[in-house]
Amino acid sequence: MQWVQEYNPLGNILLSAFVAAIPLCILFYMLAVRRAKGHLAALAATGAAILLAMVFWGMPAELALDATAYGAAFGVFPIVWIVVTAIWVYNMTVESGEFEIIKNSLACITEDRRLQAIFIAFAFGSFIEGTAGFGTPVAITAAMLVGLGFNPLYAAGICLIANTAPVAFGAIGIPIVVAAKVTDLDLMTISRTVGRQLPLLSLIVPLWLSVTMCGFRRSLEILPAILVAGACFAGSQFLVSNYMGPYLPDIVSAVVTIAGLGAFLKVWQPKSIWRFADEPAATQARATCAYSRTEVIRAWLPWLVLALMVFLWGLEDIKNFLNSIFALSFEWPGLHDAVLKDSPIAATDTSYPATYAFNFLSAAGTAILFAGLIATFILPRYGLGKATACFGRTAFQLRYPIMTIAMILGLAYIMNYSGMSSTMGLAFTLTGPMFPFFSPILGWLGVFLTGSDTSSNALFGALQKTTAQQIGVSPELCVAANASGGVAGKMISPQSISVATAATRLVGHEGDLFRFTLFHSIAMVLVMSVLTLMQAYTLRWTLP
């Protein structure tokens, strides 16, 4: 017997939508006001969603719990699997001492603080975002900039601003994968659409960083380098997202930007070196390039192997071959086709499927696992024994983020299967043709609440799709706008600010950092809102 979703249980769509938003309000309160730990906030919000689904939407208890468990399972695999393996590779490079060589190689390229910020916060941070995500790039790059002599507040703020362009394709493309999963839209179409929005932001972020640091006039002194960095990143991001998929845009764009800007700076340098006015005299000295070319290449090699493995795993032929060896897929017990979507969400009565795939060998996280195993033969004085112990420590280190991701996905799925997300989507249709303008803002709000573009897409992806279908615009555009707008919310999310202050020893100055980034966050999301509105009506030719 099927249960039919209810979209207006209180007889008034606005009132119903307000009740449906209560779990999100709890999440906001717990994170932004109470500053609760992420897993506790997610637990409270998920519990509230289950209760509301049963009491107001009339969802049977067994279905509500089943939908939540289904979402949590998807959170564990493949999402958590990617996070654990990626951070494991990073931790191995730190433990082996090779990460110090990477830091030194970047510092030796230029003495100019503006160019160092573009290299480390923008380009290298994008590389880390592409491989690990989930706060890792801000922590790493902010610590690196402080180590180079940056003012801690500027180091933290600049890294948060820089960590916008790559966020939608972060952690091996997981935000886009989740958006496609929760909406049942084509993965490549969403990837291509995001890849035709974010490059605009990527093109201007290097200039944005420099202007933030020293003003527009002084930024003109390094304009050639800014143009090279922006063009390398935006061009690569567009090409990879449109022709290869969502897994490698950040990694490839970062590598191209580092190589392109590095090569450019060998033949061009600014006439005057810019540093912070209050820098101590010790930081005025030129960085000593203490490592040979062979040592630098060896330090970077594990990350290059990782990029290669993820690229190979993304090829359809290899993916099909690995799935032919082992692939497990089954209908989720008690939930598959047990929920019926009807009008106005679906044109005709449609069963809501629930199929879980455990394609271990072809998963992106497994590609990273193999890259890490190969790295054990590259890293000096490092073997399988140390790597295994490091993996255990990494999993323990991530125990709370793992719980948070699982519960946030559980929250998303109970809201989707109960009809709560659809209820809020129907309320947003009241904005009429202006909804595409608000699509990025909704994603921005989601990332502010959860600290993750992945979680925001899980929460609001179905809502974006529903609303777009109701008003007659491309659902792929609005779902993509959720991801593209969400990147601007990362810099003001409580989790990101906490990570940045911890990395720069600014704990207790969270309010200062929030004020530092707030204007930039609002300005960037408004840029994406205007672009999305134009793509919905006057620039439709830009869509895939």
From TrEMBL:
The chain crosses the membrane at residues 12-33, 40-57, 69-90, 153-178, 198-216, 251-268, 296-315, 356-379, 400-420, 426-449, 513-537. One of its GO terms (cellular component) is plasma membrane. It is a multi-pass membrane protein. Its main location: membrane. It holds the Pfam family Lactate_perm. Keywords: Cell membrane, Membrane, Transmembrane, Transmembrane helix, Transport. InterPro entries: Lactate_perm. It comes from the Bacteria. GO terms for molecular function: lactate transmembrane transporter activity; solute:proton symporter activity. It is found in: Cell membrane. NCBIfam families: lctP. Uptake of L-lactate across the membrane. Can also transport D-lactate and glycolate. Belongs to the lactate permease family. This is L-lactate permease.
